[in-house]
Amino acid sequence: MIRLLLVDDEPMILEDLAFFINKTAHFEQVYTAASGQEAVEIIEQFPIDIVVTDIRMPGMSGLQFCEYVKQKQMDIECILLSGYAEFEYAQQALKTNAAAYLLKPVKKDELLQTILQTAEVLQQRREAAVSNKKAHETLRSHLVHLQASLLLDLLKGKKLTPEKLSEEMEKLNIPFAAGDWAAIMLLRIENRFLEYDERSISLFEFAVVNITEEVLNDHFEVWACKDDSQYLAFLIKMKNSDLLDTPRKKVLEQLIPQLQHYITMYLQGKISVIVSDFEAFPTGMAEVYQKALLLFRRLPGSEQELFLRLWDQPPQTPLRPLQRLHEPPTILQLIETGRWQDAQERLNYIFEELSSNGMDTAEYLSEVFFALSNAYTYVIHMNGLQMADVIEEPYMSGNNVATFRTVKQLRGWAMQVLERIKERVADGGKVTRGSFVLQIHQYIERHLSEDVTLQAISEHVHLHPAYLSVTYKQETGENLSEYIYRYRMEKAAYLLRNSKAKIYEIAAQLGYQYTPYFTKLFKSYYDVSPQEYRGMSNRE
């Protein structure tokens, strides 16, 4: 709606005009003023869209009033009325960017039509301005996204010719060029924000990027993106050529603790930072980024607010395997036989190990995620189902390992999906196998070093050996002897990897009293002897 101001020093004319407009048109508000100065007071107090003013008035004239509006850059359209047809008034009216210039006496209908036409033009201009503003905001948003996408491509090793790279950088207004000395900085979001939903984390990350740019802005150009591992990655180069004699690393090392301090102070959050040495851009950037990424993936999540310099890191020691994840019976074996309570306890056992002794790293989270995903997927497909049949939202959010930033998140997902599989598959599904299969497997696990022959097992479950053998094959698709052999070999491999027991001791634990026979069976299964297998595992 339009807010109109009528200005005239003749009260009768002003009152008559206001009455006519209020009666014949629908404006949000019609104000009146008896002088230019009074009109100024009104436009400074109330939002006005259109002013209709006489040119000749005592004190401030209509032309002076329009000039005042122009100088103040107010979004107001002026319509000038004058009883003088001299060209000089029309000229001055044009200089003030007046919307219209009408000669007195003017017909009221003509004036109203002019006001309505001016209102339409004003509305169109404002809509165009809003549209342009939105277009600029969209362009800026897309520009930031495109800049981040290009940086991520370069960090992941995408090759561009110098000409193409220069063209892309110029097009996206990126203040970097080939040959610039640049460093890579990785930031890991930590503490309470990791418990939030992804949208809240994204807002926090947006704030972190802004604070980082503010802290580094006096000395460095900053180019940012978010990588596939959920870390914030920055390319940094020193701004002023006259500062190149100042050690770049020294300046950066002084600013990063300030950055961590401001993140804590303003966002009540924590970040860990890894920074590289300065290298010639873009040569070697992908390699440096990979080194920083691998270092982050090995850092425990429980160790927070770290500041690590990539150039002074000691050589990395080989990772030790997660024992509880691969210890027989595995999660897959427990689910296959419908041992849901045992499977849940095994998950608790696995995550206890993952939460202890600095094992809560991104690398170990990935190992657990992929192992559980493979087991869950196998069981679902084994029962003739698709993933979507069993794992519904929000459980499907775990289809990307990078989703899990903490042990707590991964544990919650693993438990939820296990429960979903149990609900969807357990009632009458193949996974149930019958109680006797469960009893058989439990007996084998407890008596592996003793007598696990078909006769001993049949006596335990009170079934005829022939019936037990046929039924087990029907239920599992595998001969009982094949299962015992496979279980023994998997248990042997686990013990060779994770214990210092001698070969003959391991053979005895698995029920083989004659060690050479055990060695022969093991080599037949794995194509290497137990000694060779242990040696290969130690080298890894």
UniProtKB/TrEMBL annotation:
Domain (Response regulatory): residue spans on this chain: 3-119
List UniProt keywords, sorted A-Z. Cytoplasm, DNA-binding, Phosphoprotein, Transcription, Transcription regulation, Two-component regulatory system
Residues modified as 4-aspartylphosphate are 54
Task: Tell me if DNA-binding is a UniProt keyword of this record.
Answer: yes
Q: Which Gene3D superfamilies match?
A: 3.40.50.2300, Homeodomain-like
The residues covered by the HTH araC/xylS-type domain are 438-536
Where is this protein primarily located? Answer: cytoplasm
Please give the PANTHER family that the UniProt record associates with this protein: HISTIDINE KINASE-RELATED, TRANSCRIPTIONAL REGULATORY PROTEIN HPTR
Kindly provide the name given to this protein in its UniProt entry.
Response regulator
